[in-house]
Amino acid sequence: MRKPVIAGNWKLFKTISESVALVDALKPIVDKTRSVEIVVAPVFTALSRVSEAIAGSNINLSAQNCFWEEEGAFTGEVAPKLLKDVGCSYVIIGHSERRQYFGDTDLSVNKKVKAAVSADLTPIVCVGETLAERESGSTFTVIEAQVKNSLTGIPAEVVARLIIAYEPVWAIGTGKTASDEQAQEVHLFIRELVARLFSPGAADKVRILYGGSVKPDNVKGLMAQPDIDGALVGGASLKADSFASIVNYAAS
Ligand code: 13P
Fold it and tell me: In the predicted model, is pLDDT for residue 252 greater than 80?
């Protein structure tokens, strides 16, 4: 059985004190939740204080990006081992916003995933097609290339422990979520691809999250799909009550 993961990607929102206030509000509403892995991804500057605020709770910490080298003359970058040092156990890699605005490519994503795994972090590797790609019928070709190139050279037993997030770019921040069937179709495609490229065992274990306008009122239908193992939530993760409703989707 794959344990569901509900992860909140806070993107470039919230000061340190706002971030701590959010997890302080979240903790008591999700503290009974055992069946779901709960993850929050604040901005870099808030990681240290959020890490202290969630110590001993069932909330886990993620960063939103990392570099692939351990140290050196790389002004402005943050190494995976430093994320581990601040209390992260996850790191989001290759989010479409990073691919669109900051030059992340499948090649850099691949290096970052390898470095994150070496530092004992669980990468949340993002893939997803644009609207133009979907409309031209190339969704599966695009997803196949992203998964293949982002995970190249990674052993099957490591792939089994990764998290892949399918985030159709046209559904991010638009309020236009993929239908349950549209999402399931791509998730199944990714799982079968992992089976083909790595091993059936890795495909069975790897968790595939859906992201793109996940809200309290659509999470249940998405989570009912056999190959959707969780959600990567943007906007709705910025408020404790809406994120908690998504975390506790099974109870609603
Ligand atoms: P929204 O939930 O705001 O659409 O963002 C999704 C996302 O990009 C999560 O990484």
Answer: no
**pLDDT greater than 80 at residue 54:** yes
pTM exceeds 0.70? yes
**What is residue 27's predicted lDDT score, i.e. its pLDDT?**
98
Q: Distance from the CA of 71 to the center of ligand 1, in angstroms?
A: 30
Tokens of 35: 């069946």
List strand residue ranges (DSSP E) for the chain, in order: 5-9, 37-41, 59-63, 90-93, 122-127, 163-166, 207-211, 230-233
Give the Cα separation of 126 and 141 in Å (integer): 16
> Ligand 1: does its nearest atom lie under 6 Å from the Cβ of 235?
yes
